[in-house]
Structure formats: C-alpha cells, structure tokens
Amino acid sequence: MPAIVTAGVRLAVPYDAVEVPDVSVHDRGVTLLEGRNGSGKSAFVELCAGTVRPARGSARVLGLDPADPRIVRSRSVCRTRVALAPDASVRQHLRLFAGAAGEPEATYLERFALHGELAWLDVPAARLSTGLARLAWVVLTTTPQRDLVLLDEPFLGLDAVAQDILVRELDGWAQSSAVLLVDHDAERPWSDRVDRIRMGEVA
Q: Name one GO molecular function term (predicted).
C-alpha cells in the first residue's frame, strides 16, 4: 500500500491556492519534495500531516484520511519552525515527548547520544544555539521511528557533522519507512535511490 496518494488536490492556503501533483509515494524510501519558494512544499507536508485540508481532490495517508486520528502513532512530523518551550530544558521536553508517544525515555536518549549531544540535555531551550535547538527539535519530533516520516527542511542550522548523521539516519529509516523530505540541497549524498516530487508554481 502506498504511504501517500493524492489525486486532483488543490490546497487553499493563506493568500494563494496551491495545485498538488498527483502522486503515489512508496511505503519505503526517501522522497524529496522540490520546488521554488512559495510553490507549496510546506503546505503539502501539512496536507500529509492532516492539518491542511484540500479545497478539492482527495488525499490518503497510510490508506486513511490524513486527519484520521488512527494515523497519529504511525506518522511523525518535523516542521521547519522549532517549537520548544524557552524555559524548559531539553530533558524536560524529552520526558514530555516520550510520555505522549508512550515510549521509554531511553529511546530518545539513544538518539541524542548518537549525535554526541548529551551534555546539553539540562540546558533551557532559550539558551541553546540555533543549531542545537534545531537538532533537539528534529530528534524529539522523529523519535521513535514511524511508518511515515515527514520533515520540512530539517537540515536548517545544523553543522556538517549533524547533517551527515541525519542523512545516515534517514537512509536507515527508509529501509522500512516512507520518508518525505523538503530539502533545498540537491547535492546531498543519499546512499539509496531517491524519488522526487516537483511542486508547481503558485496558481
């Protein structure tokens, strides 16, 4: 079963309307969502996340309506905007996310350890650098691995080491999950075949 299927979708977003190409995204592998600024890439991610409804056409995610609550535990969403509580530490965020996901905290700690960043777990989010805040956000929103992983420009602000680790993680997830990714770096060294969806211009 495809992870994402769209047919004749038009999105009503602030100020403009976005035409979505008809797609069928495989249930495994990395799919890059490409297009110029304003072409609707983030809106497409939100469609798949169930937070933007089509003005016309149909969309299915994991065989269900994107807004169906049954998908929540099968889909992770990493948005561009980092939404961390400024006064809460990374560890406090970790506990909150782990509790909401019904996952042991150790699962999250393993991800942070992979990135070599356990030292700042007790630092309030407001005191993190842009890169560390981004990395914490990416780890928190993509743990545990889900059947569908949606990422809107997750590499923004990450240093080269963190980017390389994240690329390897995404390649690993793609062996058993569908990864939909907005990324403007066309030369990123993916190890496996990557599918591409080209968003059109704003209609």
A: ATP binding
In CATH, 4-198 is 3.40.50.300:
yes
Long-range contacts of 99-107 (CB under 8 A, 24+ apart): 101/73, 101/143, 101/144, 102/73, 103/143, 103/144, 107/143, 107/144
Residue whose C-alpha is closest to residue 167's, from 157, 177, 181: 181
Q: Mind listing the pLDDT tens digit for each residue in 150-166? A: 999 999 999 999 999 99
Boundaries of every domain in the chain: 4-198
SS3 114: helix
Q: Per-residue pLDDT averaged across 93-99, rounded?
A: 98
Structure tokens at 188: 């990123």
Alpha-carbon distance of 63 to 128, in angstroms, equals 39
- Residues near 108 by beta carbon (within 8 Å), at least 6 away in sequence: 94, 97, 98, 139, 140, 143
Local structure of residue 160 (DSSP, 8 states): H
Give the C-alpha separation, 178 to 160, whole Å: 24
Give per-residue pLDDT as tens, 57-95: 999 999 999 999 999 999 999 999 999 999 999 999 999
